[in-house]
Write the structure tokens for this entry.
Amino acid sequence: MSVLVPLPVAVSLLGAAVSLALHGRVRLQRALGLAVCIVATGTAVALLTIVQREGVVATQAGGWPAPFGITLVVDGFAAIMVTISTLMLLGCLVYAFGQLDAERERLYFHPVYLVLQAGVCLSFLTGDLFNLFVAFEVMLIASYVLLVLGGSQEQVGSGMTYVVINLLASTLFVSGVGLVYAATGSVNMADLVGRLAELPPNLRGGLGLLFLVVFGVKAALFPLFFWLPDSYPAAPTAVAAVFAGLLTKVGVYAVMRTQTLLFPGDGGPSTLILGVAGATMFVGVLGAIAQSDIKRILSFHIISQIGYMIMGLGLYTLAGLAAGIFYIVHHIVVKTALFLVAGLVERAEGTDALGRLGGFARRAPLVGALFMLPALSLAGLPPLSGFVAKLALVREGLALDRVVIVGVGLLVSLFTLFSMTKVWQRVFWGMGPSPEAVPPGARHGQATAPIAGGSRVRPPATMLGATAALVALSLVIAATAGPLYTITERAAADMLDTTDYLRAVLGG
Amino acid sequence: MTLVLPAVVGVLFASGTYLLLQRTLTRIVIGVSLLSHGANVLLLLSGLGAGEPPIVEGHTTPVRAYTDPLPQALVLTAIVISFGMTAFLLSMAYRSWRLTHSDEVRNDLEDRYLHARGGGPA
């Protein structure tokens, strides 16, 4: 059983090494990448079923017993995250086959992509604070390379912000680990649970806040989100979609993990975290409304949506956390799908500035439908997955009498709907852009002549297929919301009651 | 415990933060590497007992006279990572210089857009 735990990481790293050796043979690299992603996804699904059946599974690297060696742990939350992440990485890889230009794909795209997968999986699986830092760095260095691959001026410019802000957060992370070790003498998370509880409350609170800031930068929480909308749109779509769907959610995962396991507070709803959640939602959606090209709009929506996940953490009850986890699952799928659709539009029209687009649904009705479903789901319209996720959060918020955050959440949903209808109206409806309707501030200032005619657009099958599969997955999430919610509820129960986790890691 | 090393951490963090807030990329890169040096020294300090050997020979040595080896192992990893990151940053700064022939960080896109619309200083 426990052999499976490190497998998603090991397979990805091994695959990356082999893929590096296959440099120049793009077909072999593609096949290898696909195989590795499929194996990782299969392992993740197996882990999820094992965790459902047997509870938390832990494995000790090198057989060193828990507080001394590096521990890898899968509990419900980690298993859900690994499963959904590997699924997304698989989908985006297939999409990338159609989207990437040959030059970029030759430039080490495949090995780096697999390293990214290893980093993401390890971040979810590790049970060791320092190892979490290493996992983050593995994931981030891969993301830096993917972001600037190709090295255009726009990419380097926006990549710089991304790299520097993340390095700053990593520096704080190392300092935090150092302080925790100085205070407790351990970096094993399960071991830390007892040791941190013995610390004076103000010291523990300070450490907790430091980690909230560190992971808040990675998760793009208010007020640490400013780097995100500048950096994500510069990447090629398949990469931007992975970033949008996964990377910030790794941060959210780390926030939820550390705040529940290591710094649990006093057990009730946390006004600080709820306040951060509300501000994140609200500022994010206001930013989205002000933007005028699709990828930037979607990037601001990532920020806004993260507020909802953190709201689940802020409520800090079984139902609240379960709803938060459900929201993460829903959001990863829907957000990735929306970015992929934006990529389809951009590929066909040569731009993603709203002012230069129009009438796309007429020429590619299927793409229109593929945008419509996740967009409405993002806004939370029934019966889509976003509705289920928001309903669960709102119900729990009302049950706890947290009326303000519920009000903000509902208002932000309305704004999200407004922003999505704006995209729909400008991009998919109408006859097409008039040549003079080009705003002065439009990004992608290259001279791309607006396409005049009603010619049909046919995106490559891999791109369309991957997008359609993700949209279908979001529908499946909505349809199977009941059983899925049971799984997230069990994961939330494991987070609130850590005895299982501690027993699996420390034994006895 | 000596105060020298904590003071070094403080100075490294302060000067790193100052450099990070500059507009030229090379200064930012140096700032980032100073910051990570500061964090590494801090991590090393968490083991306490500076100057003692981390490995105890035999069982005769008194327990107090050794340094916790774990932070040293951790800091080794952290140093390698920050070295790699600095190299990457430098190559990006170089690329940026090749592309724009300027070492300055450009204004934010939104700011430039607002400036173009006549919305005040950018």
Summary: Chain B has one domain: 4-54+62-118. Chain B touches chain A at residues 20, 25, 28, 32, 35-36, 38-40, 42-48, 68, 70-71, 74, 77-78, 81-82, 84-85, 88-89, 92-93, 95-96, 99-100, 105-106, 108-109, 113, 116-117 (CB under 8 Å).
